[in-house]
Amino acid sequence: MELKKETLKQIRGLILFTAVVIVCLWKFDTVIAVLRFVLNVVYPFLLGGAIAFVLNVPMNFVECHICKTKTKYARGISLMVVLLGVAGILALVLFGLIPQLADTFANLGRSMQAFIPQVQEWADHWFHNNKEIMSFVNNLEFDWNKIMDAGMQFLRNGAGSVLESTINTAKNIIGALATFFIAFVFAMYILLQKEKLGRQAKKVLYAFVRKGRAEATLEVLALTYKTFSNFLTGQCVEAIILGAMFVIAMTIFRLPYALLTGIVIAFTALIPIFGAFIGCVVGVFLIFMVSPFKALVFIILFLVLQQIEGNLIYPHVVGNSVGLPSIWVLAAVSVGGSLMGIVGMLIFIPLMSVVYALFREVVYIKLKQKNIYPQNIE
């Protein structure tokens, strides 16, 4: 029996795929080494694409609402406005954070020196019959001079290893700066010529992929971009609102480290679900060194503001932008965090949302083919 040309093509493809899988399993270490080398080569461009994607969200807003005139300078002006805005935010955070950090470390030393006698007094009241605990507590001390002497002794004893690690650190920093510079320049090219690059990518896609699959691919990419941009915008706005709420509330209740704690919570709140609690731990530690009672007040304040943010602000600011049920949000955060850490938490929620939307669409299509309507299923 003579096989059709399409069948022969599928058989050749299956044989080639099987051969590739066998070779990859046979030379697994070599394949991993090659993949790592390729990843190191393309990493600056992947990073540049990520930077371009993040900057494109506010850039589109500026271009549509501020630079309404479609001149040849509108794209450059909107990009410059966004870059100046990002630089201004970073400068504001640094100039607000660095002096606060300096004061925090100075006050932290004084607070620990004053806190140790209180601990010894509490231990004497509750554990005066336990000699081991009392001996440990009575030997507690916090002396900056001794800490500095220990640091200098470490530097003298390990000067060679410290010098070697310093050289390696300097090399890593220079390499990271070079990678970031390449990525930043690549991102600028993408943002300034995104329509042209988009047309070229579509031409390549239609040239090598069948028309139906090419159109389906473009629809999936459009859904992915919309979901990621909505999630990014909503998460940033929500984090800013939450940080501002903490700064204002802590100032009203006269709690220490209001600005520092608010900035930390705003940054950690970018991590879905668990982020704000990381900022809470930092705030509790800092405030506890000043006053344990105020630390308790801060915990109560945190729980109240978290309830307000979770039930009122988050649904309205972020809303259903990702269209993902809460149970799948938790699953996406858990899986993304275990695979890629904090970056995975940020990526997997919109990624899971895209998969969820596509799967839901496929389910509805299958039900429609069987003349089954979702509203009739109980």
Structure keywords:
378 residues; mainly alpha; 12 helices
Biggest sheet architecture:
none
**SSE order:** HHHHHHHHHHHH
- Which structural class fits the helix and strand makeup? mainly alpha
Classify the beta-strand content into a percent band.
under 5%
Number of strands: 0
Description of the molecule:
The chain starts with a helix and ends in a 9-residue tail after the last helix. The chain has helices at residues 5-26, 28-65, 74-126, 131-138, 144-157, 159-192, 194-208, 211-252, 258-268, 275-290, 292-317, 326-369. By secondary structure, it is mainly alpha-helical. Helix 9 (258-268) packs antiparallel against helix 10 (275-290). It is built from 12 helices and no strands.
Secondary structure blueprint with pairings:
Layout lengths: L4 H22 L1 H38 L8 H53 L4 H8 L5 H14 L1 H34 L1 H15 L2 H42 L5 H11 L6 H16 L1 H26 L8 H44 L9
Helix pairs in contact: 2-3, 2-6, 3-4, 8-9, 8-11, 8-12, 9-10, 10-11
Q: Quick recap of the structure?
A:
The chain is mostly helical and about 375 residues long. Helix content is about 85%, strand content about 0%. The model has no long low-confidence stretch (mean pLDDT about 75).
